[in-house]
Amino acid sequence: MPANAIFRIQTIIVTTPTIIINHRHHQPPPTGTPLGVKKMVVWSYVIPVLVVVIYVAKSLTSKRNMVAGKRLPPGGRGWPLVGDSISWYNSVASSHPTTFVQQQVLRYGKIFSCNIFGRRAVVSADPVFNRFVMHNEGKLFKSSYPKSFRDLVGANGVITAQGDQHRKLHMIASNMMRTDTLKSRFLTDIQLVMHQTFTNFHHDQTILLQDVCRKLAINLMVNQLLGVLSESEVGEMAELFSAFVDGCLSLPISLPGFAYHTAMNARKNIIRKIKKIIVETRHGDCDGGLVGRLVEEGSLSDDAIADFIINLLFAGNETTAKTMLFAIYFLTNSPDAVNQLLEEHENIRSKRLNSRGEIDMITWEEYKSMSFTQNVIDETLRLGGIAIWLMREAKEDVKYEDYVIPKGSFVVPFLSAVHHDENVHEGATTFNPWRWMNSENQDKRNWRNSPFYSPFGGGARLCPGAELARLQIALFLHYFIISYRFDFFFHALILVCGAKLRRIECLSSPRQD
């Protein structure tokens, strides 16, 4: 049947009854025509139409999940032209991003097909299939992002690069954030930034916590990646990245007033700053942080270095800042968790009081002893993780169980759907950091390999900065909870379980020793 057959049938259905009605109204049949004859005239139109409609409906039902003879996972087609895109966007931008997926799962199962982003897509809430996709990165699947995102993060970024280039960049990023580097460089630097930030607040000062978290995260990343910058330069970078992030999933319209246009201008300014540091590093005028080490190695061009740094700034700034914010939000609603967390950190703090009455820096061993803090971090990432879903594309026809995913299909492992699945995590929508103390959850907790808990992705694209992010969040919680009282916090316009927290205000009230 031709592709436009359904539109022809719709025309028949709509216009034929109208023609009959008009005929009867304007040109009434001759007086005395038997009623049975008039009914036969009507049914002579209706019956063929019904037969065709039934045939087409059965044909579409049997073939809607067949593409070129290949059986796709079950699913609907959504609305004409837009498919399921509106429902998808409404869901992922809401307080419950998994709503659309959960509705489709109830109807079709944990692996289903739909139309989003103008393409046929296979979406998964199945932990085993998600793992299959992530661990076949570069073999059966490749990363696939919207044009606006690709343009902004650049072709040489670890997020968007493919094949050998991706492996090279991922290795550089992983080496930069090895455990020994975290101990020797990051541990002290992070604490200096945290201490400086939290000692600058005044008593009874109203604080927008999302701004604090964003500035903290960008400060940490800028200092490590670009070398120590002035406070004004860090503030400028924070503003640029705010505009940059707003355009990442926008329509790629390069006209003034559109988010994409503003974000691309922000990218140009960020690139210009990075390249300035590259030049200064070559002349020995600054340390340059990671940029300096990349320049010394000489393995990447200046353009590649700039894209690489932007990728790390984007990943580290957005995910870490929002996870810090979510952690505080969830804790404000769990006083028992606050008390246990405070007890753990007060115990560590008491051991760091030196003979001069000063507080020494936290050691690596003390960081590793923060067991309940790690529970809080894991639960925050499970319930309010920022990496909600991944974007992949089938590189070839992929057979999985009874299905065939055609080459070029959009494949979406929806990680949060697994994290919020009651069959996987009991009381899935409840913040419960104690769940990770249960022995039966220890295997699930292994975020490097577990299909049930994947806050940092997996496979070849496992986030290289995962351990750094956890270190930053743990130290943030330490300095925050020992410095300020939670009972002075209030929140408004909060979107729970999603990537958006519109506003958290707090009243600064230092704890008294």
TrEMBL record:
Entry-linked Pfam families: p450
Oxidoreductase found in the keyword field: yes
GO cellular component labels: membrane
CDD domains, A to Z: CYP90-like (cd11043)
Residues passing through the membrane, by range: 40-57
GO MF annotation, one: iron ion binding
Topology versus the membrane: Single-pass membrane protein
GO biological process: brassinosteroid biosynthetic process; brassinosteroid homeostasis; sterol metabolic process
Signal peptide bounds: none
Keyword Oxidoreductase carried by entry: yes
Subcellular location field: Membrane
Cofactor annotation: heme
Sorted UniProt keywords: Heme, Iron, Membrane, Metal-binding, Monooxygenase, Oxidoreductase, Transmembrane, Transmembrane helix
Domain of life: Eukaryota
Residue sites binding heme per the record: C463
UniProt-listed Gene3D superfamilies: Cytochrome P450
Protein family: Belongs to the cytochrome P450 family.
Protein's name according to its UniProt entry: Cytochrome P450
Protein source organism: Centaurea solstitialis
